Each structure stands twice: as structure tokens, then as C-alpha cells.
Amino acid sequence: MSEEMFGIKGVSFRYGSQVALKDVSFSLMRGEALAVLGASGAGKTTLLKVVSGLIAPSSGSVEFLGRPLAGHWLKRQQQGRFRAGVGFVFSEPDVQLFCPTVYDEVAFGPLQMDMSGGQVRERVEETMSLLQIEGLRKRVPQRLSSGEKKKVQLAAVLSVNPEVLLLDEPTFGLDPRTQVWLLELLLRLKEAGKTFLLATHDLSLVEDFSGRAIVLSESHGMVANGATAEILSNEKLLLQVNLIHEHAHRHGTVVHKHSHGPYSSHDEH
Amino acid sequence: MAEKLVVPAWLMAQDTASPRPAGHGVFLEKTLLRLRGLGRWFFIDESGTARSRGGFLASIDAAACLGGGLLLLAGLSLTRRYEGLVLAFAFISFIVAAGGLSIPLLFKRCLPLFVFTLILTVPVFFQFSFGGAGSGVFGFIHINLTAESLGRGGFFLSRSMLMLTLVMVLGLVTTPMALLGGLRKFPLPSIFTTMLFISLAGIFKLIALLDEAVSARKARTISRCGIREMEGWFAGTAGYLFHRAMRTSDEVAMAMASRGFDGTLRVMKPRSLRGRDFLCIGVSAFVSFLIIFL
Ligand SMILES: Nc1ncnc2c1ncn2[C@@H]1O[C@H](COP(=O)(O)OP(=O)(O)OP(=O)(O)O)[C@@H](O)[C@H]1O
Ligand SMILES: [Mg+2]
Q1: Is A84 on the interface with B (CB under 8 A)?
Q2: Continuous segment of H or E residues that includes residue B98
Q3: Which of B9, B198, B280, B291 can bridge B84 by disulfide, Cβ–Cβ 3.0-4.6 Å?
Q4: Would you say A228 and A202 are in contact if contact means Cβ atoms under 8 Å apart?
């Protein structure tokens, strides 16, 4: 159907003695939106960092467009090409925003790509109006609300126009209206042919956005890889990896148990 | 997650002890708050500077501002006469007035620096000594006040204060990124601006961390605490800050790399200098000349 953007082959990662990923393999095809599901601490963030080449796997390999993403490959001229091609939106905005103003923040990426001054200015203006943050241009990123920070972060990554977007908890900290707005934006970008790798606990976002999902267990291994609809309806699997939880409660004199969570089937009692 | 949840009883009940009212804290806490405030003024205060971005002064290229500023600083550091200082004062006032800069803001930014210089220089020039011979006043502090030391000290102080004010004015007229861009017009290796940028980003992060630590402490304590407790907290916080700073700098480095930073910072190409920019540099050079040789 389409070309493989990323091939992740038997990747493990350890922070010192702390295991974060255990033998994870999957491929990410061009134009698809793949969700990475897993409870807190399962290794989703670590996986995105490995895929983006920011940290090198302890064992296994990552291939980008059929070529291994080894440390020395990244250091050569292709680094720019890879960076322009792969955008990473971190889950903590405070880490990703490091310029004195919002404008500088959005301009940072395009400037590092060696675009001309005029091109950069145009890009920045258009990105800011896409994300509706023109009013923030002179503000200090540190002083924005979490939702505003999230938008600036997205703008800073989108202004480079990456082919692949790695999103870590994109809806975290957004109000419901902004979440809907973000989903619409992401769907538009998907239509435009962008590829997504999305780490989240937000199962409703996954349901609306991703066609395929992989699931990381709490022991950091990959336990499922398949169509989103199938995975989300596999209650046993979701319970096992702690994405939803069983919950006992009382209706009158009857006590009964059923699964509960941000996404779960809840029949009439 | 199916285990039974054990909630401590006290969490389920109303606390009987009533909280003591919040106090303003002791010296150390005040110092810390002030330090944080200082950082904010310098780096992340947004009010007031925007007002100054407009009109003739704002239209001058950052490189020209930088060049003019450096020339005036050179003039100030070379002059040996009060007339020079008066002229510099007049010229700085002119810039402030012409640029419509916020005087309270400027004052707010300069004051801590003034106090700092005062503390550093007073003992040197007024020859305070603790004990020993001299025309003793105030019990154990002896001050040797001679016309010469008064003149020398006063001159040095006014000169430093003028220089500091000039630097602060420069900070109000341009933005940090514009100044970095301006620096690129000088024949400096690019690693220089890159390093400056990284320190700038680091300072931002550090202030944010300090901010966080102070608010976190405020959120956890209701009453003011004693100096001992405060010292303990301070030591703990310093350790935490150091740890966080290391980890954050690691993550910031990753964030920079993921947006294409490869060790050489590229900044917005400054536009080429125009007539008004050369005028600005020329006037600065002339005033600087007058300051030295008046
Ligand atoms: N810098 C680090 N040093 C040591 N251990 C780390 C580090 N970062 C993460 N870990 C550990 O690695 C494991 C995976 O962490 P990761 O951040 O990838 O989880 P996650 O799935 O993104 O969780 P969350 O949903 O809470 O964001 C966790 O056990 C975590 O404690
Ligand atoms: Mg995470």
C-alpha cells in the first residue's frame, strides 16, 4: 500500500538499570496514524525519543526510510533532512520552549533549516495564524497558560513542516473545546498525507484519529499491534495493561463489577 | 489496580487544628523571593518594554544599537572628567525621552544593580575599616573621609551607574534575540552567539525552576517557618534545583536537536544597515568623543 517510514526492530532501552522498553518491533507506514498505548511508565515517551533518534536504543535498531538511524549517520549532513522530516512535540512544554518570545520560538526550526529570512517570516506568520496564536507573538513562552504553551509547541514543530509527527500526550492539559479543535487540525494534517506516531492515554482521541495501535505493557514489552477498533474492544487486554480498570459499585442492594475508564463499554444496569 | 484502596483516616476527616495565618516569612525567604523577582525583571517581565517598541528608536537596527551602545560605554570608561559624565547623562536622558521608554521600569531594573555597586564600592573608596586607627565614628567602624576619596568614590560610582543605566536602556530598546542577531553583524565566530543563546535559554529555565520551587514551597506551607526550617528547605531546594537544572538542560538540548539545532545557531538575518542606523552610530561616536575629550 505504501512505503515504510520507520522500521523499529527489536528495540530495547534501559536508563541505567531501569528497563524502559523491552524488545519492541513494529513499522510505521507513510500516511498512517499509529497510536502507542500504555499505562504511565510503560515506556511511551522513551519509545518516541528512540524513534526520533534523540536517544539510541540499548539493543535493536531503528530504520528511517530503509536506512539505519545509527548515531554516526545522524551526525552527517542528513541530520538536517531527518530533523526537517521528523517533528517531535514533547509532553512537557516547559522543556521544549526555550526562546525569549513566542515568535522566536516558531522561527527557531525554520532558521536552523537554513531558510531565507523572507521565507522564515512567511512561515512563522502562517503557522501562527493556523494555530490562532498571532496575539501571543511578543509574549514570553514561560508565562503562557498550559493550553497556550501546547499551541506554541505545535506551532514550533509545524513551522518546519515535518512529514512525520511524533506527538507525546497532545491533548494533555487542554480544555475540551481546544481538544476538539486539535483533533480537527490533526485530521486535516492526516488528510494532507502526514504520518503520525501518537503516545497517549486518551482513548477517545485514539478511537477518532488512529487506524492502528500498539500496546505497551507495564513490563515494557509490546503486547498488541493491530487495528484500533479491535484493540479498543478487547476489554481483557486493556484491563491487563491497566488502561482501564475494573470498578465495583452499588446500585441499591446489588453490588456488581464492570470495567471503567476514559473509554469503556458501560451497559445499562 | 484492583487492590483495595487504603485511605488514611485523617484524610477522610476534617482537620481539627486550625491553620496559622500566613506570614511574610523571614529573611532567607524574602531574599529568595527577591532573587526571583530580580530574575523576572531582567528576563521575563513583559510589561513596559512593549511600550518602548515603537517610534524612531525601535526602527534602528539592533546591530547599530549595539555598536552605538558599545561606543558610549567605551567613552564612559575612558573619561576622567565630571563634564563627560554630565554629557553622558544628558545623552542617555535624551534617548530615554526620545524612545518613550518607561522610566519607572528602567528605574526598577537599575535599582538593584545600583545598590549592588554601592555595596561593593563604598568600602573601597570611602575606606571603611573595622577597628584600627582613623577618625572613628559609629563606635567600631572607622571612616576615613577625605576630599580625595570622596571625589574619587563619587566619580567612580556615578560612572558605573551611568554605564549600568546605558546597558539597561539597550535592553529596553531591543530584544535579546535581536541583539543576538545584531551580534552576527560583527566579525565574531558563530560559536560565540551560539554560546550566548544557550546561556540565555539556560537562564530562562533556571528562573522558571526557581519560580516553581518558590511556589511549591508556598503551596505546602501555611504558616511562616523559622530560620532553621527555612535553611533546611533552602539546602534541599538548592540540591533539587541543581538536579533539575542538569536534567532540564539535557532535555532542552534534546528539544533543540529535535528542531534541527546541530551546534551552530542560525538566527534571523539582520537586514542591512540603513541611513538612520549609520546616523545612530555616528552620533554615538561623536558623543563618545565629547565625553572623553570635553
Ligand atoms: N531519565 C530517566 N532516568 C531514569 N528512568 C527513567 C527516565 N525517564 C523515564 N524513566 C523510566 O522509564 C520508564 C518509562 O518511562 P516513560 O517516560 O517512557 O513512560 P511513559 O509511558 O511515557 O509514561 P507516562 O504515560 O507517565 O508519560 C519508567 O519506569 C520511568 O520511570
Ligand atoms: Mg510519557
Answers
A1: yes
A2: helix B82-99
A3: B291
A4: no
Q: Is A95 at the interface with chain B, CB within 8 A?
A: yes
Instruction: Identify whether the C-beta of residue A229 lies closer than 8 Å to the C-beta of residue A50.
Output: no
Tell me the per-residue pLDDT of B151-189, one tens digit each, with 9 for 90 and over: 777 788 888 888 888 888 887 777 666 777 777 677 777
**B72-76 contacts, C-beta under 8 A, 24 or more apart:** B72/B166, B72/B284, B72/B287, B72/B288, B72/B291, B73/B163, B73/B166, B73/B167, B74/B288, B75/B287, B75/B288, B75/B289, B75/B290, B75/B291, B75/B292, B76/B159, B76/B162, B76/B163, B76/B166, B76/B291
A139 with B50: Cβ contact below 8 A: no
> Of the spans A200-209, B55-64, B217-226, which averages the highest pLDDT?
A200-209
Kindly state the cell numbers that stand for B272: 542591512
If one residue of A13, A17, A18, A37 were mutated to test the ligand 1 pocket, choosing by the most ligand atoms within 8 A of its CB, it would be A18
pLDDT tens per residue across span B83-106: 889 999 999 998 888 777 778 878
Residue A136 CA to ligand 1 center (angstroms) comes to: 32
pLDDT class for B51, splitting at 50, 70, 90?
very low
Domain ranges of chain B: 27-260+273-293
Tell me whether residues A100 and B205 touch, CB distance under 8 A: no
Complex ipTM tops 0.90? no
Give me the domains of chain A, ranges plus CATH numbers: 4-98+162-233 (3.40.50.300)
